[in-house]
Amino acid sequence: MYLKKEELNSDLDLEQIKKILGRERFQHTLSVLKAALKIAEKQNFNLKNVETAALLHDIAKSKNERELKDMVKNSNWEPDRLELEITPVLHAPAGAVMAENIFGITDPEILEAIRFHTLGHPEMGGIAKVIYAADFISEDRYFDGLDEIRIEIERDFESGLYLITSHIIKYQLEQDNMIHPYSNDFRNKLLKRSD
Ligand SMILES: [Fe+2]
Ligand SMILES: [Fe+2]
């Protein structure tokens, strides 16, 4: 996917983002942006904010564990103790720190979307849900069952989100990984809704 500056609502500098992310992650980011806009258009969200959150969601992904921990320490987005032990999720709070400090983002909905895109959170808002879902169903991902989830996201967004949280938790259990309460609580909330 190639994207021209004039096709964007967001004022972000794409070259700067590409430089930080590297070519491959930038491509993933563009796939997430495309998926996010498709969901957001149907849901009537502020597309500029969705774009900004999508473009910056993985902005900290190239940083190493030490850098990530240093970034989030004493920040507005300090992770809890369990998150600090689940290293693959740390680029999310660190990404919110970079979005604030490097890109001057102040909108809490955008920052929250970056902050919780890995674990999810039961109280997260609409834009955060869009980014969480888009990161999972983006066109650069392939695995069994994903097409059914893509269809469900289109049919009923919240029900699709429930499938995503369930898939992630099942996968983490199979890998014998820790499950963060944010993810579990998010799934429980979506499950209750579908009763
Ligand atoms: Fe990520
Ligand atoms: Fe991502």
TrEMBL record:
Q: Any idea which GO molecular function terms this record carries?
A: bis(5'-nucleosyl)-tetraphosphatase (symmetrical) activity; metal ion binding; nucleotide binding
Q: Which InterPro entries match?
A: Diverse_Catalytic_Enzymes (IPR051094), HD/PDEase_dom (IPR003607), HD_domain (IPR006674), HDIG_dom (IPR006675), YqeK (IPR005249)
User: Does the entry feature the keyword Cell membrane, yes or no?
Assistant: no
Please list which residues make up the signal peptide. none
Keyword list, A-Z? Hydrolase, Iron, Metal-binding, Nucleotide-binding
The record's catalysed reaction(s) read: P(1),P(4)-bis(5'-adenosyl) tetraphosphate + H2O = 2 ADP + 2 H(+)
What residue stretches are annotated with the HD domain?
25-140
Spell out the Pfam families in the cross-references. Answer: HD
Q: What is its EC number?
A: 3.6.1.41
Coiled coil stretches, renumbered: none
Q: Which NCBIfam families match?
A: bis(5'-nucleosyl)-tetraphosphatase (symmetrical) YqeK (TIGR00488), HDIG (TIGR00277)
Name of protein: bis(5'-nucleosyl)-tetraphosphatase (symmetrical)
Which organism encodes this protein?
A: Halanaerobium saccharolyticum
What is this organism's lineage? Answer: Bacteria, Bacillati, Bacillota, Clostridia, Halanaerobiales
